[in-house]
Amino acid sequence: MKTSYLLILLFLLSACNNAEQPTENTATNLPTAKAQTFSTITAPAPHTLEVTGTIQAVQRAVISARIAADIINIPVTTGEQVKKGDILIELDKGNLQAVVKEAEVAAAQAQRNLQRETRLMKKHAATAESVKNLQDTMRIAQAKLNQAKEALGYARLQAPFSGVITVKHANSGDLALPGQPLLSMENPHRFEVIANIPETLLNTVQQGEIISFTIPSLHITLQGKIKEISPALNPASRTAAAKLEIIENGSSPYLPHLYSGMFATIELPAKKGTPKTLFIPEKALHHYGQIEQVFVPKENKAVMRIVRTGANRMQNGVKMVEILSGLEAGEKVLLGANRLQNGQPVEITDNK
Q1: pTM to 2 decimal places
Q2: Residue 65 DSSP label
Q3: pLDDT tens-digit profile of 230-278?
Q4: Do the strands 291-298 and 286-288 form a parallel or antiparallel pair, or are they unpaired?
């Protein structure tokens, strides 16, 4: 049995060393496939390191109360669009109205006392000191009245900007406490990327630099401009928080289907001044289990090559894959509409 295992291992090693696979007896009765050719290109190797990031809205807010009161009504729902100034939450203002009424009575009483004392002073029946004390009392009463009226205004919570409600933290009948989150909202039209940059890469990026990031769930790659880098590291993760402003242009506009909390991967340069290497379009690459394959044209047939790939890069909107071994500079690969098979006849349809 050991001898059998050894023979199988030697056979596999021999197949890997001979990357171009034989075509004899491998493609009998296969139809002729139409395919285009693409010559490998030479470009700087994108020695990058991916870090994770999160999409979040540029403009967002957590709505909370400034006073303690029962919630009477929340006229909005999660996902609802609101405009700046719309009523979001109404609190019970019964106690607040009573406080305002009490403050109005106290201010009116202080005003009457001051007027009476002023008349008496003119008749030399009161002193200037008593009039001054009543003036101070009136100012205090007026300040309390203004404060009570301001607190009454806090019974209605309004939208600070136009946006969408993302989370409802409370319901009608709950007790609202100062600083307690009641609603969350955001502007759904502008987003940014939040990322944590490892301390080993801080010297490779700087504010204002443009870098690429990918949203795997949408299968899109966009570009962002670093607008903020924290000058302090998180001692637990040894990373610095950074914000990327999504660049809005013809190839990467703000997309209406972006959502806060989406996962993103950011490509950071691990080393600059790297040598050049070979690249082919990602659609020319095929996978068979853990084996990566491409097809090259030879005598009007598709010949399979085993390759080893490296990093990815974007070029003119096309995702290119780095080829570390298996192809030579300038060699052509096949791009077929359907998956090719080793030895299959091909008709080259390149534009003349």
Answers
A1: 0.56
A2: B
A3: 999 888 888 899 999 988 764 444 455 788 999 998 888 765 555 677 8
A4: antiparallel
